[in-house]
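The pair is quoted verbatim below.
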Amino acid sequence: MGTWAQRARQLKAETCALYLAYRDPRTPWYARVCAAVVVGYAFSPIDLIPDFIPVLGYLDDLVLVPLGVWFALKLIPPEVMAESRDKAQTMLANGKPVSRAAAVVIVSIWILLAALGIALALKLT
């Protein structure tokens, strides 16, 4: 069980490093978009598949997030990721990072998507 906890901590550290790499001006725009989507989804309280659904509920956390992190890491320059990992380790050692602006952006995106979904559903009926 210790290896699962270790992998979860490593994934959290990589996600935090992705967030920092996203903010680095040396990161190409397409890598920034990918990193923003992955980080936003990983830290979002709303999942694609709700956690209360047996087995499938945790599928996105076990498959989609690591796959997204892996893909985003392939797009970001190695030197940017190395610096971002160092900064992430320091940040995580000093306590959990909190970004109210990021929370507002994530919630706004979900509200916008919900509104678009409702508008589409009303249009189809």
